[in-house]
């Protein structure tokens, strides 16, 4: 049996293309829940209050999928942002929304360019010269400097080691 969910007026034009559920009814334990064959969502009652996103909806975290923001942090980009591989549900003040997920193995890796690598190295060097300890890898901020934790370009830990060394050799 196939039924379609009526469209809701609160859905945007972009979402209206993904409104129709394609239902399949199966008897489970004397009940007949509705299951959408596209998004794989199930409703125990006959009341369907959401639209079909057009892709499977994940019920729990799957490390194989990630959001566009998470992928961008890893320098991975989906081949087509308009075609997500899965979705997840979330609510904002009783309104249902879908977040789009993309498969990690289908994403395109874009490594840093030579210019970006050079810029990162220059930034690291400048930061070390301005805010770093001369003897170790610790960095400080104005708060640390004002508290006296960094004096003469050395952190408290290195100053203590130098003082102990000087005391031991004298």
Write the layout of secondary structure elements.
Blueprint: H1 13-16, E1 23-25, E2 34-36, E3 42-43, E4 65-66, H2 68-73, E5 76-77, E6 86-92, E7 95-103, E8 108-109, H3 114-131, H4 142-146, E9 150-151, E10 154-155, H5 156-169
Structure write-up:
It is built from 5 helices and 10 strands, in the order αββββαββββααββα. It has helices spanning 13-16, 68-73, 114-131, 142-146, 156-169; strands spanning 23-25, 34-36, 42-43, 65-66, 76-77, 86-92, 95-103, 108-109, 150-151, 154-155. Strands 1-2-3 form a 3-stranded antiparallel sheet, with no helix packed on it. Strands 4-7-6 form a 3-stranded antiparallel sheet. A two-stranded antiparallel ribbon has the order 5-8. The chain has 170 residues and is an alpha+beta fold. Mean pLDDT is 81; it is low at 1-17. A hairpin with an 8-residue loop joins strand 1 (23-25) and strand 2. It is elongated. It folds into 2 domains: 13-109, no CATH class; 114-169, no CATH class. Helix content is 28%, strand content 20%.
Q: What's the short version?
A:
With 170 residues, the chain is of the alpha+beta class. The chain has 2 domains: 13-109, no CATH class; 114-169, no CATH class.
Strand content range = 15-25%
Instruction: Please give the radius of gyration in angstroms.
Output: 28 Å
Helix count from the secondary structure assignment: 5
The low-pLDDT segments are 1-17
Structural class: alpha+beta
Percentage of residues in helical conformation: 25-40%
- What does the overall shape look like? elongated
On the 0 to 100 scale, the average pLDDT is 81
Order of helices and strands: HEEEEHEEEEHHEEH
* Number of domains as seen in the coordinates: 2
The neighbouring-strand order within the major sheet is: 1-2-3
Largest sheet: 3 strands, antiparallel
Please provide the count of β strands: 10
């Amino acid at each position: 049996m196939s039924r379609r969910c009526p469209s809701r007026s609160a859905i945007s034009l972009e979402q209206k293309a993904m409104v129709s559920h394609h239902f399949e009814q199966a008897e489970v334990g004397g009940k007949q829940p509705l299951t959408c064959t596209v998004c794989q969502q199930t409703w125990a009652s006959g009341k369907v209050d959401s639209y079909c996103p057009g892709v499977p909806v994940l019920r729990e975290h799957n490390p194989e999928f990630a959001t566009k923001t998470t992928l961008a942090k890893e320098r991975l980009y989906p081949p087509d942002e308009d075609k997500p591989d899965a979705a997840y549900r979330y609510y904002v003040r009783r309104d249902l929304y879908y977040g789009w997920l993309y498969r990690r193995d289908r994403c395109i890796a874009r490594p840093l360019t030579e210019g970006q690598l050079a810029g990162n190295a220059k930034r690291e060097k400048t930061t070390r010269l301005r805010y770093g300890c001369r003897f170790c890898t610790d960095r400080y901020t104005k708060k640390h400097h004002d508290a006296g934790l960094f004096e003469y370009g050395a952190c408290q830990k290195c100053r203590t080691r130098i003082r102990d060394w000087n005391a031991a050799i004298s």
